[in-house]
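User: Hey, my collaborator sent me this sequence without any context and asked if I could get a structure. I don't really work with proteins. Can you help?
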Amino acid sequence: MFVPDANILLHCLRHSSEIREELLRILELLKDSLWIPYQVGLEFHRHRLEVEGSAADAYNRLIKDYEAILGQAREKLRQLRAHPSISVERELSALDMFLGDFRGRMELAKAQHPVAALAQALIRITAIFEGRVGAKPSPEKLAAIRKEGEDRYSKNIPPGYKDAQKDGPNAEKFGDLIIWKDLIEKAKSDGRPLVFITDDAKEDWWQIHRGHKLGPRPELLEEFRSFAGQDFHIYELGQFLHIAAERHKDIAKESVEQIEKSVLEDEQARRRTEVMQGESVLRSRILLLENERDNIITRLAGVPIVDPARQGVDLDKESLRARLAEIDREITTAQSSLEETKRTD
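Assistant: No problem. I've predicted the 3D structure and written it out in structure-token form, which is a compact way to encode the shape of the chain:
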């Protein structure tokens, strides 16, 4: 029995028409072996609108980003003084021409956005899992899982503890644990081993050694065998598709490689976005710390500071010096993290 996670199903909506069609065709071929917990279906529907909305918004977002970038380039050119070989007017005209062409291509792509095709993909996904979705957990069952989850997460018992800090109206920090409980119940009731297919790369699912995923966490294997009496394994999407191609003559290895390439590029883009967001947070943190450090140095020098955040707080010089040392350590740590982030990228 193969159980795709919500992030796997979302690939059916995220990629080009060729990749989308081939992935849906493969799932249709294998549907008799597929099943999903109710929580997977819930998460899929919660996030599919984000995926579809992000794709629909990409045209205007990219135009706006290019306008900003090329606007900076235009300003740099206008600031350029007399130059023996660069023609400012010619280069400004080239930038305008490029932006005009790019805007035209994006507007054309926007007009051709596959609204109907994506709606049809959703219909096909629904048909694939007709009668293959677990029952909705009762409120009492969910309450019990969440209570157990608080204890498990505090002890770093997998799966799901890496989501302990999730927040927001649709952020179910116990989602992975809810899925896990349903996987165990399904394998036990059907008397069949189970393979979970997921893009989730966190250590609360995988045993990771030197950056390589070796397989499910040993704790998960032990718990699954103990409660379900069955074997459990985890596949990444590419691994699952390659194994499927070996067993089904209607699944071409070339198609699998194309899907795997598109999924890998999508994952790399996601990681680059996360790195950029992480760098932005670290830079903002460093800037705040540096401003606080400057204020403390000025105060130690005897200059009064009007700081709304510190109104009513009259720290002595010893406390200020202690805070100054603490800030220096925090800045050093943040700068090290920033450099590590750049190296990872």
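In plain terms: The chain is about 65% helix and 5% strand. You can pass these tokens on to your collaborator as they are.
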